[in-house]
Structure formats: structure tokens, C-alpha cells
Amino acid sequence: MRTAATIFSALAFAVFASLASPAAAGELVAHPQRIDDLKAVFGTVESLHKTSARARIGGTLEKLSVVEGQKVEAGQNLGTVVDTKIALQTAAAESRIQSAEAELALARTEYDRSKELFAKGAGTKSRLDAAQTRLQVAERTVSALKSERNVITERGGEGAVLAPNNGRVTKVLVTEGSVVMPGEAIADIAVENYVLRIRLPERHARFIKVGDTVLVGPRALSMADTPPRRGTVSKVYPQIEDGRVIADVTVDGLGDYFVGERVPVHISTGTREAFVVPREAVHRRFGLDYVTLKDKTEVVVQLGQITGDGVEVLAGLRDGDTVVW
After folding, report:
1. How many CA atoms lie within 13 A of 166 on its CB side?
2. Which of these, 35, 147, 306, 324, has the minimum number of CB atoms within 10 Å of its CB?
3. Global pTM?
4. What are the CA-CA distances from residue 76 to residues 70, 81, 166, 207 (Å)?
5. How far apart are CA 107 and CA 105, in angstroms?
6. Edge-to-edge strand ranges of the sheet holding 50-54
7. For position 115, what pLDDT does the model report?
């Protein structure tokens, strides 16, 4: 009876275990397949274009309203350059305009008197013409002086240091109170439109081309479990420098990165045969990775690179094994 009870208990436990275990969600027969042989390199976040915010007039940098790392928009005021001579020139121009307007008033009065006398027959035509000429000269003198004043006023407005493009300030070159010259750079700006610039040994130059897909890893160790993002090779530079070929990779979401930050990138340098299983087929326990075969056997596997269809299995599987999950 004890033997029968033991057998009954074992059968009941097996039935309960089979009912409690979830049904397999998928099944895959493992066969070697061709996958890209990815090489791990570091890409550097760089701007395609760099520009500088420059002073348009000479003078003293009275105000600086930008710091390194700040995002700026085209036309944003980054600082103010003050030239004290402009205020003096404006005052002098105003004085000249007032003097010219007084002469204009006198010339207009003389013209009106000459016109009236000529109408009464007491004045000559030549005197009227001379008065009219002096009036026209005075009017043009006032107009020229006002234009000169507008030029001086416009120069004063050019004391504002404006950002030429949208982007991020990488370096501020001067401090408040500095004396600057016309055209001197106030801040360097990395224009928005960032790329990852990678450098590969020249032996891999024949494998890389525009349009290739690359995998971009996470930016921090704390995000090591984050799946890689896809990027596209947008440019391959024709010149090899220091034994390395240079290429630009376009990937979304680089706006929050630091310019010059290094990011892991995996790029194809050929193909090879390997086993590939879906990521959900792999479960981790006690620091080891396992896959479950169709006969419910758990096999320890060693994982390799992540592919578009799943993850590579370096060891633990044989050709023809059926993996379930």
C-alpha cells in the first residue's frame, strides 16, 4: 500500500505540475544562419556644423547672458557690447541736425520773402532762384544728417551679440567687462543636427558604406539592459586618417547628449554563421542564461551579440535542437 500511495502521489504531483506550468508560447528549431559580424567601436557625438557668435562692433562686453551647455535659438541675444563713443557720436549728430534745421528755417523764410517780392515786382528772378537753391540745399543737408544719425543709431543696436543658428553653446570665450574687437568670437556654438562620428581600422573600410544599419548602445552603465537603437551610416569620408576610416552615423535622440560624449556602436564588418534565438526564449537565473528545449530540458547557453531577430547563442545549442518558450 505504501508503494501504491507513493506512486499515486507522484502521479498526482506530475499532473498538478503539468497543469500549473504555462503552455509554450513559441517554438524554434535551431539551425545556423548567416548574421552580421558586428565590431564594437566608440562613436563620438559631434555637430555637423560649428559656428561662432561674434561681436559686430568693438567695445566693452557689458553683459553676458550665456553659459557652456546652454541651448540657444537663432537670433537669441547672448550678450551686449557697449561702445561709449556711439553715444557721443549720436549727440554730435543731433546737434548738427538742429543746426541744419535752423538754417533750413532761415532758408525757407528767405525763399518765402523773395517769392513774395517777386510777385509784387519788387524782386528779381535771380534772387528768387538763389533763395530756392539755398532752400533745397538746406533740405538735403538735414536729410543727409538724419541718415547719418540713423547709421550711428543702427551701429549702437549692433552691440547685441546674436546666436547665428539653433544649437548648443560649447564654449564661452570671453567674460563680462572684456574689451572686444569687431568680429571677435564671443561663444562657440554646435549647430543642432548631431551625428555619431566613428573611426574604424582601415582593414574594415571595404565593408562600410552609406545606408548601412548600425546598433547604438546605451550611454550609461546604469542603462546596460536597455536595448540598442538603430542608426544609419549617412556619410563615409574618402580620406583615411591615422590608419582609420571615418564615418558619420545618423540616429534619433542625440539632442540630449553632450557634444564629444562617447557612445558604444556596433557596426557590421562581414558575416558569419551562428545560432539565433528570440530574446524571450532566454531566461536568467543565478547569473546564468538558460533556454528550454522541447523535452523540458533546460540548457545553459552563452549569449553573444544582439541581432535584429533576437540574440546570438555562442555555446549550448546544437543543430536541430528545438527551443520552446
Report:
1. 4
2. 147
3. 0.53
4. 12, 15, 9, 44
5. 5
6. 50-54, 185-191, 167-172, 71-72
7. 85
Residue 158 in contact with residue 78, Cβ under 8 Å? no
Q: Across residues 131-142, what is the average pLDDT?
A: 91
Dist. CA 108–CA 125, nearest whole Å: 17
pLDDT for 98 equals 92
**Best mean pLDDT range from 5-14, 118-127, 142-151:** 142-151
Q: Kindly calculate the radius of gyration of the chain based on its CA atoms and give it in whole angstroms.
A: 40
Q: How many Å apart are CA 166 and CA 29, to the nearest integer?
A: 53
List of domains in the chain: 22-47+193-324 (2.40.30.170), 50-83+159-191 (2.40.50.100), 84-157 (1.10.287)
Grid cell at residue 210? 552609406
Beta bridge partners of 70: none
pLDDT, mean of residues 258-279: 83
- List the strands of the sheet with 160-162, edge to edge: 160-162, 77-82, 59-64, 179-180
- Which residue carries 546596460 as its cell? 224
The closest alpha carbon to 268, from 306, 215, 309, 218, belongs to 215
Q: Can you read off the three cell numbers belonging to residue 8? A: 499515486
CB count in 10 Å sphere of residue 280: 11
Q: Which residues pair with 231 in a beta bridge?
A: 214
